[in-house]
Design brief:
It contains 17 helices and eleven strands. The protein is an alpha/beta fold.
């Protein structure tokens, strides 16, 4: 044992082990100190409740001023933004940052986007995400309009706000954070509530130049009066606008869509907005982002204030402004982001000229069911024609088509229009070519027999009901050829659409 302890190699190894243990202990102690310090600073940064257990009221915001106690990062970002907006920034760096948008939208599309001037009215959950997407995508002139300030409850849905921004005007918070992402973006901050009286000045041209009107306006207001006044003004002045309807109480992002204000449904804010606009003579022509999600048992709903809140005094004190909102609106933090990005996506594609074909603006389940019934009825007539007019052969006849197939054919393959005249109403689907032999398919015998039509998606064409009735009589049940009834242009269009249906059919 003595010889081992006196061995220089053993002594060296022991020293290394002890040193490593000491070093590891020191590192772990340092990390614990750092973690404790971070937690302490984070706790100190959160506004403390007052003695009576309620949050202190935020001071009224009357102007956008210097950042409160700007840190070194803020100073660096503002200095960089100042340089970039004065042309002292390599354009190649900007194009590299926008490279993915550049290859997607093309050179001309990105050029239009970079030259655009967009106004975002309402900078909360929806507006902040829309603004963030615009700045990151290349829009270089953005006007932000909002009278409100960041609160602790804003942080579950705001795109960029942090604890350090609590109490800061929302418009200033967005500029503060986004200049660190895109310093070349010029922000025009308007700390003001939108109303009809101020509409002219708030939606004026860039830097007062009335010839430089907004290329687009995003309505992200959650107050019905202000929303209606904004949309009415944009409609009358011919300003392109897209309006975000209610994200509150919604939870299914797959139900969010873009449609015309006149056709949106399953959305209380949309319904109320539409009703008031109709009274002002505006019934359509305004695209809106809305959700078709249905409310149901167990789902969140707009809640009234608890009775104890009324006992404390005027409920108007609970709103941001008098009579602004005094009900509790449950909001899942992800949904305003979805609404905001859908609105921004609409603006980006419209300004850049990128083609965008939306799904129909309202659910058309009943229409699909009616079309499916018509397909069934017309197929039965075709079968009877080949089976000597016997009615019994059609009893229990099935067609291998679903409402989902109907939806695809009508909305996607035929773009919601008749292939014959382009009319978008009273649409039906019907077999295009007259079969050369019976279309009846029999499997089994007796009570176990299954009867179906050999109809495929690629066999169908979209027409109005009147056109389909004529087509059935003259082509499918009559002696006329397609060339006798339709022009070469219509026939070629139908063939092209049927190829799309064939491709879909292979993967359904």
């Amino acid at each position: 044992m003595a010889s081992l302890t006196s061995n220089p190699k053993v002594q060296l190894a022991a020293t290394a082990v002890v040193s490593a243990a000491v070093a590891a202990g020191a590192v772990l102690s340092y990390q614990r100190l750092q973690e404790g310090d971070r937690v302490s600073r984070l706790k100190q940064s959160i506004p403390q409740p007052s003695d009576n257990g309620t949050e202190p009221a935020l001071q009224s915001v009357t102007r956008v001023g210097p950042l409160p106690k700007p840190d070194k990062e803020d100073e660096h970002n503002q200095a960089l933004a100042h340089r970039a907006q004065n042309g002292d920034f390599d354009d190649e760096l900007i194009l590299e940052q926008l490279a993915r948008n550049r290859v997607f939208l093309g050179e001309e599309g990105l050029r239009r986007l970079r030259a655009a001037f967009v106004v975002v009215v309402g900078c909360g959950g929806v507006g902040s995400h829309a603004c963030t997407a615009l700045a990151r995508s290349g829009v270089q002139r953005i006007r932000l309009i909002d009278f409100d300030q960041v609160t602790l409850s804003s942080l579950n849905r705001h795109a960029v706000a942090t604890l350090a921004d609590v109490g800061l005007p929302k418009v200033q918070c967005l500029q503060r954070r986004l200049v660190a992402v895109a310093p070349w973006v010029r922000f025009d901050l308007r700390l003001q509530k939108f109303d009809k009286a101020a509409a002219g000045s708030l939606l004026e041209g860039w830097e007062g130049d009335q010839r430089r009107r907004p290329d687009f306006v995003i309505d992200a207001i959650d107050n019905i009066e202000s929303k209606v006044e904004l949309l009415k003004y944009c409609h009358d002045e011919g300003l392109p606008v897209i309006s975000a309807m209610g994200a509150g109480t919604k939870s299914d992002p797959t139900r969010v869509m873009v449609g015309d204000i006149g056709a949106s449904f399953e959305d209380g804010l949309s319904r109320a907005t539409r009703r008031r606009l109709k009274l002002l003579g505006v019934s359509s022509g305004i695209p809106v982002v809305y959700s078709t999600e249905k409310m149901g048992e167990g789902k969140a709903a707009l809640l009234p204030l608890p009775e104890e809140e009324f006992q404390k005094g005027s409920v108007g004190d609970l709103g941001v402004l008098p009579d602004f909102r005094v009900r509790i609106l449950p909001v899942l933090g992800t949904m305003p982001a979805v609404f905001g990005y859908v609105a921004a996506n609409h603006v980006i594609t419209k300004i850049s000229g990128y083609p965008m074909d939306y799904q129909p603006a309202k659910a058309r389940d009943k229409m699909y069911e009616a079309i499916l019934a018509y397909v069934q009825a017309s197929e039965e007539k075709v079968v009877r024609m080949f089976e000597g007019g016997r009615v019994d052969v059609c009893i229990g006849l099935k067609v291998p088509i679903t409402p989902g197939d109907i939806s695809f054919l009508v909305e996607e393959a035929f773009r919601g229009r008749s292939a014959v005249t382009g009319i978008p109403t009273k649409l039906m689907l019907i077999r295009w070519k007259k079969p050369q032999q019976t279309t009846l398919v029999r499997i089994g015998e007796g009570n176990e027999e299954q009867k179906s039509s050999n109809l495929r998606l690629r066999d169908l064409v979209c027409m109005t009901k009147e056109e389909a009735v004529r087509h059935l009589k003259e082509v499918l049940l009559g002696d006329k050829s397609l060339e006798d009834v339709y022009s070469r242009e219509v026939i070629e269009l139908v063939e092209a659409r049927q190829k799309e249906a064939e491709a879909y059919e292979r993967h359904r």
